Amino acid sequence: MKADARRLSVHVPMIVLSLLAVFPVWWMVVTSLKPENEIFSTRLWPASPSLENYAYVLDAIPMIRILWNTFAMAAATATAQVLTGLCAAYALTRWRFRGASVAQGLIALSWLVPFQLTMIPNYVLATQLGLLNTIAGLVIPNAAAAFAVLVLTNAMRSFPKDLIDAARMDGAGHFRVLCEVVVPNLRAPLASLGVLVFISAWNEYFWPLLLTRRIEDTVVQIGLQMFMTQEGNQWGALMAAATLASLPILLLYLVLHRQIIESFMRSGIR
Amino acid sequence: MTGIELTGIRKRFGETEVVKDLDLSIAEREFLVILGPSGCGKSTLLRMIAGLEDVTQGRIAIGAQDVTWTQPGQRGCAMVFQNYALYPHMSVAGNMAYGLKVAGVPRRERSERVARIAATLELGALLDRKPHELSGGQRQRVAMGRAMIRSPRVFLFDEPLSNLDAKLRAQLRLEIKRLHRDLGTTSIFVTHDQLEAMTMADRMVVMNAGRIEQVGTPQEIYRQPATRFVAGFIGAPAINMFPALIDEDGRAMAPGGWYPCPDAVWALAPGTAVELGVRPADVVAAASDACRPSFTPDISEDVGTEVHLHAHGAGFDLTLSVPAGAPLPTRSFAISFPSGVAHCFLKENGQRAALRHSIPERTEATWPETSLSSI
């Protein structure tokens, strides 16, 4: 009895919180399926569901192209941040050099610098380098991030030093040690960091807004904005586009949810 | 010629000097054991020989070739680590062959060499297993196989047996000695276990606080310890130390006017403070008398082959190693030992003091056969 009561006291709040978290997503999907005349009804399921909003979205903006742009940008950003983070973490933890702790402190400090402070110089530089309206322009300023360096530095600190020493005794150079010994044994933190950076890049809004002018070169978060006009918001289309934008992330999570949760737990990222 | 020459080696981590101006020659085919307490710099020294740690000052030569700044993989050394350091994502065969893969040895030759070494170490049935599927002893054997496969010029062992249970440790100790006998590769073995050091070494180096205290054969180090530290570090139970002062004749006088070894005359100035060291096995119990301090039995530990008897005296404690089955004293007793077994160390710097004239190392002094309760 006592155990049941305790279980209930834990589960009821968790169920309520889950419903609170799921409801907006549910409402987004339901609204996207509502025809124009039903859009403001409070029914939990449309009387006559239709895909007309999706058809409209695909017709109004190059949604597939935009999704591809976003995927390419997010994947490239995640890969770049993981790679730069890995190299920096290896150097910071494995090499003894003058100023190592200062370098690490500066990297940590750079995490506190707001984007608004660097956006103008970044924008000017990107313009001069001809990176306007390009995926490279979206990726390069975010190719190295303090968060990635700090997460991987922590992971590298707890990596067995003897393993690296053994590989060096076997004749492997630093790059080989990193690729053949460190990376295969650091998959959990690398995967969780990769997923986190991918999701964060997927949701990126401000930098693409600055850098992309043409709708076919932009990313999905900017695409959504097309349905918010001065004449009013096209809620059905907006929700359909938002649903399409969420699908890849949802799919990623559905396929990898066990690994993602496991790697988050193991690497200590919450 | 694959001897090793260390000249003027120093290692500093920031302000802390962990290895202090160390010179050492290791002969070809020699099995040298470096022994010392935790933090004495022995592992750092081994890592400097391996190339895993840069020297702050000094020169390291292996086989007459200066390798002070050579990369670890190019020194011709192979190392066996305390925690095995096997690559968790590779199979046993992969672990053993990794060094050859890095060296660009073709796959077929790698497989042949792995099979050959695996047969030597009885690892043939385990080649496809991952390290986490192996026992501690098997892992250490794989680590040795990985070291052997590259036919190195020098084997470096960094406390490789300390994570194993006593039985396995004894077994692997023999295996390592046998391998050394068969391969004849110059080997350096770092340990803090004196039994390992005494049983395995051709020659031993005892280190303390970054310095070499003594280099010699295990017998030399046990029988002629060069410093008080060596005398105290080697031998279980630990050597007994009695404080004493040198008198006008050069004899050592313990507190209370007791002359523990009246026949020994040391080449020291009168009034020099010394410590006399006597191994527990060399001390025998005797009947109490007025000229000698008496001791009270405290705890006895029966280790099977002998009994260690701990006793309290006025100003100093004592341990005796009593033959198994011999009667133990039950009340106050005095002690005696032949003068020749005592080691004299200067209180000032712990250095061994020389005798002014030699005396026989042993005279008659055996454990009393009568029941010691009547002493």
TrEMBL record, chain A:
One annotated Gene Ontology cellular component of this protein: plasma membrane
Keywords: Cell membrane, Membrane, Transmembrane, Transmembrane helix, Transport
InterPro entries: MetI-like, MetI-like_sf
Localization (cell): Cell membrane
Short name of one Pfam family: BPD_transp_1
A biological-process GO annotation: transmembrane transport
Location of the ABC transmembrane type-1 domain: 67-256
Primary location: membrane
Cited Gene3D superfamilies: MetI-like (1.10.3720.10)
Transmembrane residue ranges: 12-30, 66-93, 105-125, 131-156, 177-202, 235-256
Cross-referenced CDD domains: TM_PBP2
Protein family (similarity comment): Belongs to the binding-protein-dependent transport system permease family.
Protein name: ABC transporter permease subunit
Organism: Pseudooceanicola pacificus
UniProtKB/TrEMBL annotation, chain B:
MF GO annotations: ABC-type transporter activity; ATP binding; ATP hydrolysis activity
Keyword vocabulary terms for this entry: ATP-binding, Nucleotide-binding, Transport
Family annotation (PROSITE patterns): ABC_TRANSPORTER_1 (PS00211), ABC_TRANSPORTER_2 (PS50893)
Domain ABC transporter, residue spans: 4-234
Any one GO biological process: carbohydrate transport
InterPro entries (UniProt xref): AAA+_ATPase, ABC_transporter-like_ATP-bd, ABC_transporter-like_CS, ABC_transpr_MalK-like, ABC_transpr_MalK/UgpC-like, Mo/tungstate-bd_C_term_dom, P-loop_NTPase
SUPFAM superfamilies hit by this protein: MOP-like, P-loop containing nucleoside triphosphate hydrolases
Coiled-coil annotated spans: none
SMART domains, sorted: AAA
GO cellular component terms, semicolon-separated: ATP-binding cassette (ABC) transporter complex, substrate-binding subunit-containing
Family: Belongs to the ABC transporter superfamily.
Name of the molecule in the record: sn-glycerol-3-phosphate ABC transporter ATP-binding protein UgpC
Organism of origin: Pseudooceanicola pacificus
Lineage, highest ranks first: Bacteria, Pseudomonadati, Pseudomonadota, Alphaproteobacteria, Rhodobacterales
Gene responsible for this protein: ugpC
